Amino acid sequence: MSRTAVRVLVNGYGVIGKRVASAISRQPDMRIIGISDVVGDWRIKMAKAKGYDVYASMPEKVEGMKRGGVDVEGTLEDLLSKGAVDVVVDATPAGVGARNKALYGRYGVKAIFQGGERHGTAGVSFVAQRNYVEALGEQFVRVVSCNTTAICRVVGGIHEKLGVKKARVGIIRRAVDVWESSHVGIMNTVVPELRVPSHHGPDARTVMHDLDMVTMAAKGSHNLFHLHMGMLEMEDEVTGDDVIDVLNREPRVVFVRGSDGVEGLNSIFEIARDSGRPRGDLYEIPVWEDSITASDDGREIYLMWATPNESNVVPENVDAIRAMTELEGKAERSIAITDERLGIVKKLY
Amino acid sequence: MSRTAVRVLVNGYGVIGKRVASAISRQPDMRIIGISDVVGDWRIKMAKAKGYDVYASMPEKVEGMKRGGVDVEGTLEDLLSKGAVDVVVDATPAGVGARNKALYGRYGVKAIFQGGERHGTAGVSFVAQRNYVEALGEQFVRVVSCNTTAICRVVGGIHEKLGVKKARVGIIRRAVDVWESSHVGIMNTVVPELRVPSHHGPDARTVMHDLDMVTMAAKGSHNLFHLHMGMLEMEDEVTGDDVIDVLNREPRVVFVRGSDGVEGLNSIFEIARDSGRPRGDLYEIPVWEDSITASDDGREIYLMWATPNESNVVPENVDAIRAMTELEGKAERSIAITDERLGIVKKLY
Amino acid sequence: MSRTAVRVLVNGYGVIGKRVASAISRQPDMRIIGISDVVGDWRIKMAKAKGYDVYASMPEKVEGMKRGGVDVEGTLEDLLSKGAVDVVVDATPAGVGARNKALYGRYGVKAIFQGGERHGTAGVSFVAQRNYVEALGEQFVRVVSCNTTAICRVVGGIHEKLGVKKARVGIIRRAVDVWESSHVGIMNTVVPELRVPSHHGPDARTVMHDLDMVTMAAKGSHNLFHLHMGMLEMEDEVTGDDVIDVLNREPRVVFVRGSDGVEGLNSIFEIARDSGRPRGDLYEIPVWEDSITASDDGREIYLMWATPNESNVVPENVDAIRAMTELEGKAERSIAITDERLGIVKKLY
Amino acid sequence: MSRTAVRVLVNGYGVIGKRVASAISRQPDMRIIGISDVVGDWRIKMAKAKGYDVYASMPEKVEGMKRGGVDVEGTLEDLLSKGAVDVVVDATPAGVGARNKALYGRYGVKAIFQGGERHGTAGVSFVAQRNYVEALGEQFVRVVSCNTTAICRVVGGIHEKLGVKKARVGIIRRAVDVWESSHVGIMNTVVPELRVPSHHGPDARTVMHDLDMVTMAAKGSHNLFHLHMGMLEMEDEVTGDDVIDVLNREPRVVFVRGSDGVEGLNSIFEIARDSGRPRGDLYEIPVWEDSITASDDGREIYLMWATPNESNVVPENVDAIRAMTELEGKAERSIAITDERLGIVKKLY
User: Fold this and answer.
1) A35 and A74: one domain?
2) How far apart are CA D74 and CA D20, in angstroms?
3) Would you name the residues of B annotated as active-site residues?
4) Residue D349 lies in a domain
């Protein structure tokens, strides 16, 4: 660990926050100063058990957290006011990050927001392999949502190399996260997002500014991974092999195959667990290679991929820190470091 | 009941077969001669309890059915050979219908196949409100699958009135039927159909011959109703209200609204049960009115609908019988009789 | 319908309320005056569509209901104050009934509460075939919960005839009801009730005062029917056949068999739908006949049954009205009328 | 790694086999010679990717595995015949192990069977903390199923220290494993095991020979972890604290608490993933501390625990190897080594 390592605090130790904390701990050029949250249940006790210093995101939460049995070091604002933090990764629930922005601004701390915040909150929306340079030196950057990140990696890669005229994507979302599946889930149903098109299409354009993208989405009765069904109208004639070639060169995209017995999202989750990452995480976007099909006239491409919603934005947060702090000026170099440290591969099996 | 009522046998008393039997029993111009099947479990005992005569679809199944406790009247072939049947509704598992065709041919009996069979097995694929006349007087007709029927009613109606240039539809299928959910289901996953595009697109063209339709499909972790997400490129500029007008006039299509608390497929199932149909069935296609959206340039239409997979083809089977036997020459008149007898409406609540 | 039919209002048109309303509509000696509720979504619009007069349970809800598009006749209190109601069936959410008691008391109206209320709210807890006489002429009666009703029918019957020393029952509950499965469900989990023993045991003793009953319960990841696993220590030696004999004579208990292909709760739901009751309801308790087993020494009995949580208390509400209003003094006679009108049987298939 | 490390082959690289292989790789006194299986899908490719030598369990499977793209080193029998293996961990599907026994016998190789085999196949059924000495020097040992292991750890510990007169346990099983959840699952149902009592009770007696244990079981609509609801009649009066004391001293049993937000099996799975074990595994039995309750007279104890079905038998397999090969004569010492190497703890958070 360099003595000049970037000092990072993770605000909001939830599904994304805890994974970003783990990932940052593995980087050579950054370190975790602590985490902050508002509750004192098993999740925060686990953070303590892992050795993180725990702060209260808001002063009024200190008491409750202590009552829950968590030893709180102080408040987030105290810590920021001491100049102890270079970058806050804000992984609080959607909308809370926007309210926190003033706090970060007050102390001149850089902050990364997640995809639940609007583009305008940060001004820069980020997917490392698409627009790393837009984040260089910025105070505020937004790592886009898991769905948008997946689209930017897969459709974005195809668009950059082969030219996508119109992308139409159907999204089957996981309903809720694993930890909250005991009280706010959905059962034996599909719940459509009736605001059509869904926000994912416009959101992709905050990163891929010239992409004609429309998405429709619905929540499925499962709690892990989204499934995307992409129908791409191309600028020129292409073959399925053209698409395979592009995705073979794209970082953080991997192939799986039905012919290898990869039948569904459950198979991919089992692969992820077998791959030995912490929590069974998957940072890459798994594309079913045998789903990639061109229309007879070569003007449309169809393909399916999974979006590991808990973890695919984790490396983006790491790269965003490097870009914002100018630890590294080139996307390729930051991605290479991150991927090496997190064990990100181009071949899962 | 007319003394000249068409005599119908239902071969395969499963999810579709039992519902078609119930529906035919309610028609003024047809009657159930019996049902045939190959097992003797509670499902067939229930058929007996309802008063149907039960036959064995194959001679070698008689013994097993009797051993299961079912009083079998004889074999299907016996019955056909006596000239006791005018039309067989073949609702056997996919592929079995094709094998049964020779039997029906041998005795000159008319037969309806279901969507699990190929178009070529019958030569005519049928959705009453689209191509009733194609079935007039035919010996063999295929009622297309629940998904294709839904597409023909919704997209077909829009295409006929407003002109659809290209239809792209994402389908989230129910994984299995309720009765078999105790052994061949899927759990906490989504299983994509890797043959892309899925068969539903080409299948729609067996009915709507000039429709440019591509579909992608996946199985969701639920066992009731499919959800369709339609993205339609239009020949001309249209508004959402144009589409609402068309669907308001289309038979067997109804509106539901998120603003009325209709959140998901589960809500629709609850509505269906409250509507008082047998088994909580729904013969109509429920379209979320508040999902219908036109793109800014009016050249694309987006909308979502549910497909009640157990029951939406039931009225089609009834109408097909009328067309094949020429009981009724006009689609509108057959649809009107069927709908009146089954309680099919344009407004669920 | 007798001109002196008991006039009933159903307060709370939810899962139980709407079914009780349907059941009362089928009785020769009672009629529905109207229903009252607090929302104006599709569920209440459906009540209007069925022809019920709709009232607001609370004056402050009138506006919202009208805004939702429901034509409200007035408030519940107005109606009660006019002497237009003999009995209110209060099927409001747990705890609300207790608050409503004062209102019913103020106008001297009889009221039935459901199992979500405490025994003390009514003073009499009711299962028709166990303690009908306790409800005769009472102003307030509580129909116990679906789980307790099931236990009183099955274990209660065995206890009365054969003597149960100690009943120990494990309960796998459905997590939520179908209509709410789009937002408060549980997913891919089991959620134990950590207050052990669960309330069901003591609750059974409000009806079966001398039964030593302990229950443990957990919510399963399904939304229809509970499963009960009963382990009964007997006063004397018994055989499985003794238990079968008892349950064969017990009203509102039916047998299903794994050997007939009845594999799980899903099979029973399919049977219920095929049985032709409104909404696919099941008023009886289905016991797996082939699960009934005696220990080698004949001192313990094990058996499993399903609890159709949406509908098994419906006939109890009907019978409670007869007892409270003294329309009928004998349990057997009330049960016979109710069962005939609702199509309740001793053999499902 | 000692040069005299015990050489282990894992036959059957499924849910249990792959985890046992990982666990053995972490032990100081044993090493994996290879794994054998019968298929060539992604699961076996993953084994190759992890560096294991892959063998075909049966000669006739070599071709298919190679065709699937797996580089097979040879057959299991070849390897055994060369004397290259000291112990086979047979983790093949239920019933296959019994057929394999002759093969292991032919070459004088020691073998461990899993809980899907009958007690008689091995003659010794094993749970390390209960009967380690029974396995000392044996050629064949059976590690009992996940459910039986959990019962032996929890109820067994209570029985040894406090005296259990009769144990009655309700089991809500996970329906299928994650990898197979795309084709043989159950959906929105509970499927009871109609052979009552279930096999788990008698099975526990193969390890705890004097325990009066009866179990009833059903499959729930989830794919991770079983839930056990225990009702224990005690020899003497006890308190909940007595039970907590016992379980606090019992190896491989940990406490979780509803008051810490541990609501269901999903919470425990999230804890397991956060705990940093490979695949998010959990080797301990999590007992809800706040479920432990004594009856008023102190003669009954009620408590609930989860059974991490994929992984709780993994340390037992490791200990069984040490006992059979007499690497270690004392249970406590083997358990200590295994637990240290696998990170097994007494406190998860």
Assistant:
1) yes
2) 21
3) 146
4) no
Asked if B262 and C223 come within 8 Å (Cβ–Cβ), the reply is no
Both D159 and D15 in one domain: the answer is no
A285 within a domain of the structure (yes/no): yes
What digits encode the pLDDT tens for the residues C60-107?
Answer: 999 999 999 999 999 999 999 999 999 999 999 999 999 999 999 999
Are the beta carbons of B196 and A293 separated by less than 8 Å? yes
Burial letters for D277-288: b for 16+ Cβ neighbours within 10 Å, e otherwise? bbbbbbbbbbbb
- Output the domain CATH number for residue B205: 3.30.360.10
Question: Based on the domain organization, do D156 and D284 belong to the same domain?
Answer: yes
pLDDT at A3: 57
Across the interface, of C261, C269, C279, the residue whose CB is closest to B41 is C261
Which residues neighbour B54 within 8 Å (Cβ) at sequence distance 6 or greater? B34, B35, B36, B37, B44, B47, B48, B65, B70, B71, B72, B73
Q: What domain range includes position C185?
A: 146-307
* Same domain for D54 and D39: yes
Burial B109-119 (b: 16+ CB within 10 A, else e): bbbbbbbbbbb
Query: Nearest-CA neighbor of B45 among C35, C256, A67?
Result: C256
One domain, residues A60 and A196: no
What's the pLDDT score for residue C99? 98
**Would the pTM of this model clear 0.95, i.e. be above it?**
yes
* Judgement on whether residues C329 and C203 belong to the same structural domain of the protein: no
Query: What tens digit of pLDDT does each residue of D108-148 get?
Result: 999 999 999 999 999 999 999 999 999 999 999 999 999 99
Residues of A in contact with B300 (CB under 8 A): 214
The residue of chain D with its CA nearest to that of A255 is D42
Find the length of chain A. 349
Angle at Cα A234 formed by Cα A230 and Cα A238, nearest 5°?
A: 100
SS (H, E, C) A21-55: HHHHHCCCCEEEEEEEECCCCHHHHHHHHCCCCEE
B49 chain-C contacts, CB cut-off 8 A? 348-349
Q: Which of B95, B304, B315, B131 is nearest to B205 (CA)?
A: B131
Confidence of residue A21 (pLDDT cuts 50, 70, 90): very high
Q: Is the pLDDT of residue B3 over 80?
A: no
Instruction: Identify the pLDDT of residue A51.
Output: 96
Q: What is the CATH number of the domain that holds B22?
A: 3.40.50.720
Q: Is D256 part of a structural domain of the chain?
A: yes
In a domain, B347, yes or no: no
B299-328 pLDDT tens trace: 999 999 999 999 999 999 999 999 999 999
A168 lies within 8 A of chain D by CB: no
What's the domain count of chain D?
2
Q: Which residue ranges in chain D fall short of pLDDT 50? A: 1
Residues A152 and A298 in one domain: yes
* B35, B156: one domain: no
